[in-house]
């Protein structure tokens, strides 16, 4: 029997998650820190605090990607490039390349600004430790690769939305000489089409893996739980603007 259009629609795990907690998603990706970063009203202490912690996050991300790569069962057949596992490995390698570039950007920018020693000598905050623990849990042997990929996509989806929000608050008529380091370097880096393309590839891969599982099964419920944790962690990761040092 010919399938109807409704029957032919494949489930989208990422769309399901995005619509699950809309208020929490907005809170995580439209934080006052981002508005301040876009309008040159971010205190230097908060900028350096964020940069030091984001650098530690990026280092934890490297280990997380390595753990996910070890979960991908790579076929030895010549048609392996068509398998979801090879697609996952290929994309995870791209993510590693991307985070290596970001770490270099962090450190070169900090060195130019005279902050390198300061941002490299920080200890992980409670919020950063939460992410480190979250990454370790999502990559645990008991978790299917789907969970790890979902967590990876979720972090990048939130980051993309966050910095696109910041970009929307910027005065794009500013001359280069009038832009601060956030406006020149960091906001463009994560609101650019290239980063968005990477996030969309991750989303498509998550959906491909998600289609192998029942929408009512425990794997989708597990991904829902991890999504909620990511939203909490992302919101808490941004520095509190009025916090006293």
Unreliable runs: 1-7
Instruction: List the total number of helices.
Output: 12
Radius of gyration over all CA atoms, rounded:
19 Å
Largest sheet entry: none
The total number of structural domains is 1
Query: Within the CATH hierarchy, at the fold level, what is the topology?
Result: Heme Oxygenase, Chain A
* H and E order: HHHHHHHHHHHH
What is the CATH-assigned architecture? Up-down Bundle
Query: What is the CATH superfamily label?
Result: Heme oxygenase-like
The CATH class designation is Mainly Alpha
Residue share in helices?
Answer: over 70%
Structure characterization notes:
This is Thiaminase-2/PQQC domain-containing protein. InterPro entries: Haem_Oase-like_multi-hlx, Polyketide-peptide_reg, Thiaminase-2/PQQC. With 245 residues, this protein is mainly alpha-helical. 71% of the residues lie in helices and 0% in strands. Helix 3 packs parallel to helix 12 (218-237) and helix 9 packs antiparallel against helix 11. The relative contact order is 0.18.
In short:
This is Thiaminase-2/PQQC domain-containing protein. With 245 residues, this protein is mostly helical.
Task: Describe the structure using short key phrases.
disordered N terminus, Haem_Oase-like_multi-hlx, Thiaminase-2/PQQC domain-containing protein, single chain, Polyketide-peptide_reg, 0% strand, Heme Oxygenase, Chain A, 12 helices, 245 residues
Question: Helices and strands in order, then pairings?
Answer:
Layout: H1 5-8, H2 13-18, H3 22-29, H4 32-38, H5 44-71, H6 84-113, H7 116-120, H8 126-138, H9 145-169, H10 181-191, H11 193-210, H12 218-237
Helix pairs in contact: 3-12, 4-9, 5-6, 5-8, 6-11, 8-12, 9-10, 9-11, 9-12
């Amino acid at each position: 029997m010919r399938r109807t259009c409704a029957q032919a629609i494949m489930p989208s795990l990422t769309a399901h998650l995005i619509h699950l907690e809309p208020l929490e998603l907005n809170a995580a990706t439209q934080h006052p820190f981002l508005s301040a970063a876009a309008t040159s009203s971010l205190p230097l202490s908060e900028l350096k605090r964020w940069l030091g912690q984001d650098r530690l996050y990026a280092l934890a991300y490297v280990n997380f990607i390595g753990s996910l790569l070890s979960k991908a069962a790579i076929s030895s057949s010549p048609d392996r490039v068509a398998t979801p596992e090879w697609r996952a490995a290929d994309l995870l390698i791209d993510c590693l390349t991307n985070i290596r570039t970001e770490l270099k950007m962090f450190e070169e920018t900090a060195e130019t600004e005279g902050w390198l020693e300061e941002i490299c000598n920080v200890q992980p905050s409670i919020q950063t430790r939460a992410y480190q623990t979250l990454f370790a849990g999502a990559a645990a042997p008991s978790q299917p690769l789907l969970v790890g990929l979902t967590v990876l996509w979720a972090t990048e989806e939130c980051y993309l939305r966050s910095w696109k929000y910041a970009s929307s608050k910027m005065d794009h008529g500013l001359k280069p000489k009038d832009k601060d380091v956030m406006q020149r370097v960091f906001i463009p880096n994560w609101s650019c089409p290239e980063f968005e393309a990477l996030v969309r590839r991750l989303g498509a891969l998550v959906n491909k893996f998600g289609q192998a599982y029942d929408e009512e099964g425990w794997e989708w419920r597990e991904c829902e739980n991890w999504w909620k944790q990511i939203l909490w962690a992302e919101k808490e990761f941004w520095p509190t603007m009025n916090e006293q040092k």
